[in-house]
Write a structure and sequence with these properties.
225 residues; alpha/beta; Rossmann fold; six-stranded parallel beta sheet; 9 helices; 6 strands; 47% helix; globular
Length: 225
C-alpha cells in the first residue's frame, strides 16, 4: 500500500503541471495538490484578460485579441518560474505554455495564425519544462455540468459545441504530446475535488515513481452498497 507522505518525501518530481479542458477541475486540483505538498502554486489569470468576455459573446471578432493577451501573459508568468524559490520544494501550475496553441488553432483564421506562429516561435524555447504533466480528461457532459455548477458570468453562454470541439482538440494535442512525462487521467467517474478518497488515489498515482513517458489512469468508481 503506497503511503502519501512517503511518496512526497521521496518524490523526484518537483514541477507538476495540471491541464484539462474548461470545467475539468484543473485549478481545483492544482490548489488541493499545492496545499498537500506545501508547493508554490501558479494559476493562470484568465480573469485579467479584458477580451475574454467579449470573445465568448463574439468569438470571430475577439479571438485574436484574446489569444495574444493570453500568450503574452502566459509567457511572462512562465519566465518567472525560472526564479529560484527557497521556500517551496514543489511547484504546481494549472496550465502548460504549449496549450496556448490549442486555442490558437481552434479559434484563429489564417492571417492571424501566421502572426501568432511568428510570435510564439520566438518564445517557446525559453519556457521551463514540467517534470510531469497531468491531463484531466472528462466527458463533454461532465465538463458542461461543472461549468454550469460554478456559474461564472463569462461562461454562461458557452456552448456544448465549443466545449466538444475544445475537448477533441485537447485530446489530439495530448495524445501526441512528448515534451514531458504525461499522465492522462480519465476523471469522468471520479470526483477528486469533493471526494477525499478519489483525491488521495489520484495523488498516489501522480507521485508514484518509475513512470513510463506516457501513462493512463483509468479508475473505476466503486458503487457504494
Amino acid at each position: 500500500m503506497l503511503n502519501i507522505q512517503s511518496l512526497i518525501e521521496n518524490s523526484e518530481i518537483r514541477h507538476i503541471a495540471i491541464e484539462g479542458v474548461i470545467g475539468a477541475g484543473k485549478t481545483s486540483l492544482a490548489c488541493r495538490l499545492g496545499e498537500l505538498l506545501n508547493a508554490k502554486v501558479v494559476l493562470e489569470k484568465f480573469e485579467e484578460n479584458p477580451f475574454l468576455p467579449k470573445f465568448y459573446e463574439e468569438p470571430i471578432h475577439y479571438a485574436f485579441q484574446t489569444q495574444i493577451f493570453f500568450l503574452l501573459n502566459r509567457f511572462k508568468q512562465q519566465q518567472e518560474l525560472f526564479q529560484a524559490d527557497l521556500f517551496h520544494r514543489f511547484l504546481v501550475t494549472d496550465y502548460i505554455f504549449e496549450k496556448d496553441k490549442i486555442f490558437a488553432y481552434l479559434n484563429l483564421v489564417d492571417d492571424e495564425l501566421k502572426l501568432y506562429e511568428n510570435l510564439i516561435g520566438s518564445m517557446e524555447h525559453n519556457i521551463p519544462t514540467p517534470d510531469l504533466v497531468v491531463y484531466i480528461q472528462s466527458s463533454v457532459e461532465t465538463l458542461m455540468s461543472n461549468i454550469k455548477k460554478r456559474s461564472r458570468d463569462i461562461e454562461k453562454n458557452m456552448s456544448v459545441d465549443y466545449i466538444r470541439d475544445l475537448s477533441e482538440a485537447y485530446n489530439y494535442f495530448f495524445f501526441r504530446y512528448k515534451a514531458a512525462p504525461l499522465l492522462i487521467v480519465n476523471a469522468t467517474a471520479i470526483d477528486f475535488v469533493n471526494d477525499k478518497n478519489d483525491f488521495e488515489d489520484l495523488v498516489k498515482e501522480i507521485l508514484r515513481p518509475n513512470k513510463a513517458p506516457v501513462e493512463y489512469y483509468n479508475p473505476i468508481k466503486k458503487q457504494k452498497l
